[in-house]
């Protein structure tokens, strides 16, 4: 596997291009759909998608991680065993979702038919080819980028047409299911060994053994990542949940980019280097990581100081409160970015347990602070609990890195200082020019 500097730069640029194209498409989609739909529709989808994600993460044994790290990941028997296990799991999860749908609909006071329809998402997702994961294993970032963008573009066009025909929750819901189906269908155009339903007991056992920590981590990650949506979905008005969901989706984009870079480049690269005993490759990550976190600090800092402007320009007045929410949420996104980079390093070193532990801390802080924060200061208090939870997650991951001698604490401290400097300079300049600060609406609401 080529690991020279030019190849690494090329993979990074393709990953960055993938993120930029994906972000641009989702951004355009959000802007258009918010002008066609009421915030309450997005509130319903925030709840439904959170529950869908939770169901999909149940029994997650890390099919992707297994294929990427296992030396026989491209072997016909391993590949098809993983594919078969993925489909069986999808069928079981859809069956479970269908059974739970009436209970979930009653709890959240949402039409039962909506939950019944989204119940088919796990099965549709499971039908994709595991050739997607072979592209990650082989560091074929260009191929993966083109595939993901094609699938997202086709899904967006179909969803937009459906929403124009049905400007309500059903247009958005059916569009989501169509987008999942399109991605699964297109995945079979990627190069892959012939697909065949089969279970090799030896490989299945290895997948389950390694996937134990992945499964625990996935459930915990879901709980930690979606507790805010599920809690606010129950206690806050649907329109407010929809506005918050918009802000949270935008705030999650930088962290998702960091996770994509970590798990599509850093994790497979380090996993390969470790398997060959190449410690030089492990050490070479440091300079590139420093550039990445400094770039991220500058982007997040500018985002914190300009979020209210961006929202007021791009969205109509129904969504204006998403501005100050986004500004606060980006502080949590910063710690999430650092954690995602660091967790990928630990995963590449064969230490997935730290990710699970970090998300236990994250969930515990959220469970203890989310409800209290909302009662104390509304959505602002809930967001502060989210920032505290992400900080707790980062601290635990940093502890794991120190134990495994993969620590970048000095880099992270420097980058965090740079972020705070950017925020202070930018917001200070706004105040000096009489342009206010990003949190004006929030502070007025708390009075």
Quick overview of this protein structure:
83% of the residues lie in helices and 0% in strands.
How does this model look, in words?
The protein is mostly helical. It contains 17 helices and no strands. It has helices at residues 5-36, 39-57, 63-69, 76-108, 112-118, 121-126, 131-137, 141-165, 169-186, 201-235, 238-275, 279-283, 285-314, 322-348, 353-403, 409-432, 440-446. The longest helix is centred in the last third of the chain and has 51 residues, at 353-403.
Based on the model shown, name its key terms.
about 450 residues; mainly alpha; 17 helices
**Helical region count?**
17
- Uncertain runs are none
Helix content: over 70%
Total count of strands: 0
The profile of the biggest β sheet is: none
The amount of beta strand, in percent, is under 5%
Determine Rg (CA atoms, Å).
22 Å
| SSE pattern, N- to C-terminal | HHHHHHHHHHHHHHHHH
**Overall pLDDT metric:** 86
Shape: globular
Structural class: mainly alpha
State the end-to-end distance. Answer: 60 Å
Helices and strands in order, then pairings?
Blueprint: H1 5-36, H2 39-57, H3 63-69, H4 76-108, H5 112-118, H6 121-126, H7 131-137, H8 141-165, H9 169-186, H10 201-235, H11 238-275, H12 279-283, H13 285-314, H14 322-348, H15 353-403, H16 409-432, H17 440-446
Helix pairs in contact: 1-8, 1-11, 2-4, 2-10, 2-11, 3-7, 4-5, 4-10, 8-9, 10-15, 11-14, 13-14, 13-16, 14-15
